[in-house]
Amino acid sequence: MAKGQIKQKQSTINQGTFENLCAIQCTKTEIAAVLNVSEDTIEKWCKNTYNKNFAEVFSEKREVGRMSLRRSQWRLAEKNPTMAIWLGKQYLNQRDNIEVESKQLVRVEELLTKIEEEANK
Which residues contact 22 (CB under 8 A, 6 or more apart)? Predict the structure, then answer.
């Protein structure tokens, strides 16, 4: 009877829902809770449905979510300068150039000049 119950639970897993949960990078525990099945059931269902273990399927399906997130960020960058700057730094190697001149550095340069003058005498 337990086998029949497991088969019944496995068949109630909606593939689209499962893939959407992977896309938003839910953990196996979270996916099991949403689908109201055990983590073992998810593992077995992945083997039966995809011929792969959960980790392999998750790795593939979460990429769809990453693409969606990236698409949203690019759209947001068209209206939000902060996002545009952040994306520029991430993908275009753009950086904020901050020039800092330290009083100590000036003092060190003065000392080096004096040392050179003394050495040249």
Answer: 31, 57, 58, 61, 62, 64, 65
Number of C-beta neighbours around residue 64 at 10 A: 14
Q: What is the pLDDT of residues 17-52, one digit of tens each?
A: 999 999 999 999 999 999 999 999 999 999 999 999
And the tokens for 37? 């099945």
The DSSP code sequence of the chain is: -HHHHHHHHHHT--HHHHHHHHHTT--HHHHHHHHTS-HHHHHHHHHHHHSS-HHHHHHHHHHHHHHHHHHHHHHHHTT-HHHHHHHHHHHS----------HHHHHHHHHHHHHHHHHH-
Q: Do 103 and 58 meet the contact criterion of CB atoms below 8 Å apart?
A: no
Angle at CA of residue 66, ends 89 and 77, nearest 5°: 40
